[in-house]
TrEMBL record:
Matching SUPFAM superfamilies: WD40 repeat-like (SSF50978)
GO molecular function annotations of the record: U2 snRNA binding
InterPro entries from the UniProt entry: RSE1/DDB1/CFT1, RSE1/DDB1/CPSF1_C, WD40/YVTN_repeat-like_dom_sf, WD40_repeat_dom_sf
Protein's recorded name: RSE1/DDB1/CPSF1 C-terminal domain-containing protein
Organism of origin: Trichomonas vaginalis (strain ATCC PRA-98 / G3)
Record GO cellular component, one term: nucleus
Domain RSE1/DDB1/CPSF1 C-terminal, first and last residues per copy: 850-967
Pfam families: CPSF_A (PF03178)
Signal peptide: none
Amino acid sequence: MEKKYWIHKTIRPSTYPINFITGNWFDAVNEGIEYTIINYLTHLQVFEVKLENGIYRSMYPKILQQFMSKVYAIVKGKPENGIDTFFALRKNDIVHYIFDRKEALFKVLHVLELKPLGINPTNLFMIDSLLITSCPHGSLSSFDINNWRITKVDKPTNFVLLSFITPGKTLCRIEGGNIIAYYNPYTLELLSKKSISVTGYKLFSAFQYMDGAIICYVSETESEEGIPPMFYYISENVELTEVDTLVQIQQVIHEGLPFDEKSSCFFTEKMEFYQISDELNFNVTKIPVTTREEHYFTKLLPFADKVLMAIAISGESLLISPPPTKHTLVYNFEIGQMGLEVSSPLAQVPYMVSYTNTPKSNKINLIRQGIVAASKGNTTISEAVTGLYHVNYDNRKIIAVSHANSTQFIELVNQCFTQTVVQGVKENSQTIGLGVILTRVSILIHARTDGVSMIFSDPNKPGDASIRNLENVSNVSLFASTMSQFLICFQKHRLQFISVPEADARKFNIHDFDAAIDVTAISFSGYQLVNRKEQEQVSPYADWMAIATTDGKNHAIRVYNARNFEENQFLTISMMCPVSSMAPLTSTRMCVGLENGIVVLLNYKHGTKPFVTNSLSIGQGPVRVSVIERYHVICTNSRTWGVSVNQKDIPKFTPVAIHSLSFVAGLGQQHFLAITGCQMELFRLDKGGELTQSKMSTKSPIVKLKPLDGTSFFFVCTKDDIKLYDIRGMMHNFDECGDDEVIKDFYVWEPKSSKLSQTIYVSFIIEREEESIIRIYSLQRPTQQITKANSVCEGHFSKHFENITILNCNDTHNSPFIVVSEGSDLTLISCNFETNDMSCIYHLQHLGRGIDQLTTNDDIIIVGDCSSSVTFIKYVTESRSLQIIGRDYSTRSITSLKPALPHSVCGGDRFGNVFYFELQNITQKKNLNLSMNYNIGDIITGTCFTCDNNHCIRYSTISGKLGAIIQLGSLQKDREWVSSMNEKMTVLQLVQQKTSWMFASLTNCFEYEFHNKQFPSGDVLDLDIIDIFLNMAFPKQVQVLESLSRYLDKKIDLEYISSSLNQFKNYFWNWKDRK
């Protein structure tokens, strides 16, 4: 029987901010830098905010920590030992946190349990030594934080619209029944309440202004347009007073917040920002902010003193201060993405497609996994390139572009390429390396196939004459260097190791030796891993060097001591195939590229045996490995990957969102050069992110997206039209609706019988007054050019259909079956392309409360209901009817549904669950088998299923989170793979279990409870928890590892955990073409 493994990983955490607090969280005061905690509902992130002359300029994400629950608000607490603390408000309690440097996380100090009457609060306030919570359902609670106890719980009303603390330290709430009420925060006693009813108007919004609130009213008669809104101010001491200055704006107010005790900011329906001040004179001033036309703001949050942050539904943010000061801040939170789809273009990393609709704009989001590599400039290369090399010599950035029989030298000045001349080098030879030796003078080494040139920066101070005989050495094949050492291989097996003695820089130590077999790659070790914020003294000497050899059958790497070299003293480690290239990562790790497309890490410490970890297949063909900067290497073949290590020397493999790089040369400071086709480009890596995103716009709201597998094309269905796009823009327009028509849904399919003809069919529903129109188009599968779409069938029905799909029970494009839904009913429609005829053949009623999702998997119709979960339905040919064959009887509100393997479906619901259902026997009606369920903690807006190397469910949430759950099966795998996988899964699941328990003891955040909410998650391995373990303090890691070693009766170390984690992460990155 097949053994299945489910593994979860977050691709991008949610980025919808709930609130901000700024403080001294790390006992580190840096001028011009503030540290702000952003609450993202299910996790927090600390940002380093930089100021210049008091103006906020930029935000950089730092520490990220999981809450493992929903946190509705955070407030700053009293400092302890000079470090600020904060309180986190959850459904059933309030948790007090402080940053612990020893544990490297925010650790719990106290937990205040809420009474049953006061659960589910959304507002948290702190006054003196009191914490006060306010609930939308009307409850109030207060806590004394000096004695850490609850003081009072009350429920004076059943509904609350707005809660805030006034400058006079009273609690004000706008409550149900059009009441504004004031409470004593210390006793929660009602001080006063007033009616805020206005005849003929209903309350639309309200915000705090001074000690009271400004309330926006709209007409109760919705049918009457053009009636302007009304605005009133009310406080404890002021009766309901009309605000004439706001009436003149003639716009509805969406949201507002106070700047200070005497002024507030608000924005209107037209996305205009205003300040209201001057107490009861209500002076209104427009705030001149720079925004794009399509910005549609939904939230206003306090950011700092007299600074508010406005957040658009697109995720882009804007900082606002009182006039005349203006702060703008560009930071994209990436929220509200819907309809996630995944496309797999041939020989490329797939991209995820989603959309965001706003009242002002509609965006298509194209997201590709991988580090962002931004092009900063390029120059044309006329000849075929055989190598690319860079050195900093004589305060110049010298680049050598090698060709078969010549070398072109280029200088990089201010990101511009300039042809240059380097005195003493030979331009009529092929270059195989550049290096700089630092002795009494700088020496530029130019390694060529026909010799090695030594160019001295000061010709009057020549070096050791004994190395000048390298000028005319023939058949030089490999070269490697540090600042005081270099190694040359010639005639494929002879080597010469040259170093500058530490005691006497006037002489060179020269060692000639013979490997006796072919040498395929050489490299020196890298730098010591140190605190990168400190000024370290970098040694110019490598501790060891590696030489890769092969005799055609046996392949190995020899490790030599580079400080005290002895020809016959080396350690050997075997490799699975010939080594194509090597590059240093740290002083103990070397990145090794193999001929079969695999990258491994060679690990060596003095006094131990070398060993290999972190095997990763990055693509097809030999791997070229190049150093970009210290602790960062890039590997290239058919794809591009980055390899780096963190402060704890834990390796990390991440794809780079760029393809077809033949040669790479690092420049440092996250910049590198690369040959792409006939151009040399300058790139800059954004190591802070692992996603590359671009956007496209549409005029009307988007209904659905559908990529075409194996191509870079995707269909976009809006309410007005259907278009075919590629990743560069629109390519073809199918159909446009009339003024009284709206497209409700569409479906794209490719019948199996049309594979040879490459025909694609597009069906969609158009709603027109009292009828629905179903149209079907056909076109040839696009390659480089788009053929014209032909209308093949159309039908008119006196119903309002909402969802459409195709049933493949009869796989012929001459008579497909269309399935549509209306409310909780299904209708089966037969159509004939030859007669252009459609007819209803069966109607199935009352499947639930309302069908929101509809799809098919071969001959099974799958329905997702707004409350009745998932239903499997089969078409019975004999009776020409629909029959329910499987059902999930739990209560789920389905928000996404996608076909998976035969007789199975994956999807998501409104409660945050990602699920996978299977029907194991389709011959009889039975309950669906829930194979996997994992609670993410947020509304699922999209899911998709891909079956490349492994089965993968990708999901998106309403707050911007992207993640994936893969299924690894043991079927048709070799016995060695199954044994290794079982062992690693066992170890990592134990690490997850012990880390979850330890994390809960430190933070009061319970991972198991969070992910098993409503439904059991089963044996899902969460790589996010393994990342938490690897970022824990070293004593905690040792504690977990020692416990595992005793339990498994086998030594488990950090290297094993890190290597297993990178292997499993590779399953999320390493895509191959479908089928």
